[in-house]
Specification:
7 helices; mainly alpha; two-stranded antiparallel sheet; 117 residues; 4 strands; single chain
Length: 117
């Protein structure tokens, strides 16, 4: 798979994500623990970072949390889930994160559920 840095740009620190979401960094960390939002540690970063495309209009992209839960249920860790969300999928077409941003969560979830089989 492609390196995460090649797939995702820009990134936000937890503090930056908190500012966009108009909340506290501790609430952002809670959302990450609850799989409502994804944050991963990348080489050279001092802490976990959130892909900026996971946020839209001051909120977490609708459907992201459910998709992350399905991926975790399929055995994906945070890095693998991030790669999957940001890797183009010809059957969508496009990347799963783009489909979620376009309000097409059912298509993304069908593909995420299929990973378990």
């Amino acid at each position: 798979m492609s390196a995460l840095e090649d797939l995702i740009d820009p990134w936000l620190t937890l503090d930056e994500a908190a500012a966009v979401l108009r909340t506290t960094p501790s609430r952002v960390r809670q959302w990450v623990r609850e799989r409502e939002l994804i944050a991963v540690r990348t080489p050279g970063a001092t802490g976990p970072r959130v892909p900026a495309e996971c946020l839209v209009d001051g909120a977490i992209v609708k459907g992201l949390g459910g998709t992350l839960t399905l991926l975790a249920d399929s055995g994906y860790d945070e890095l693998e889930a991030a790669r999957w969300m940001f890797t183009p999928d010809d059957s969508l077409p496009g990347r799963p994160i783009d489909a979620l941003r376009d309000n097409r969560p059912a298509e993304v979830r069908r593909r995420a559920q299929a990973l378990a089989f």
